[in-house]
Amino acid sequence: xxxxxxxxxxxxxxxxxxxxxxxxxxxxxxxxxxxxxxxxxxxxxxxxxxxxxxxxxxxxxxxxxxxxxxxxxxxxxxxxxxxxxxxxxxxxxxxxxxxxxxxxxxxxxxxxxxxxxxxxxxxxxxxxxxxxxxxxxxxxxxxxxxxxxxxxxxxxxxxxxxxxxxxxxxxxxxxxxxxxxxxxxxxxxxxxxxxxxxxxxxxxxxxxxxxxxxxxxxxxxxxxxxxxxxxxxxxxxxxxxxxxxxxxx
Length: 249
Fold this sequence. Notes:
The chain is mainly beta and 249 residues long. Helix content is 4%, strand content 66%.
């Protein structure tokens, strides 16, 4: 386009954490703050104004207790909070009708909170039984989009302005998740081990899925194993995949 610019791939990162424990309880916290840019714009144009700012905070309280020689219970509750404020100069100053550059500034917050519990029990020495459950809730909220172009056509709309109403980049949504799973780890002999497991996940906005797992391991020589495994898996669509709207990139 005949324009030059400055790129700076430097990242300022603050990463702080604290972990403390007492008997069966452990508290783990972490804070991450990131700022980077100027940067290539979303349209891969050199620019000197983009600024990407984000922070994430994690708090987790975990509990683990053994019941005699054969049983153990582990549980944890957690909260993850995040904020993103991305100031994108998609095209530099003087590009076509954008005398001040093509500017897009999406921002928003995300939260995930949940609880997970798992019980392990060794039965008859040969079987290690595991049963567990997960409950989780994810939300994206307080989203805003400030820009100087129409996100559907890319046409200029004058000065940089709030286009959240009618032009937001993502829908504000909440997802509830629960899952249960069961597994038997069976030592058939000293040399042969079988694992049978199944898990069911249910997403409020995606649906449910059930996935089995079967594995056989044969320790046929010292330091050598033969494994045969079968299982299915899935990946639930992200909020970005489902709810991005009015996204010119």
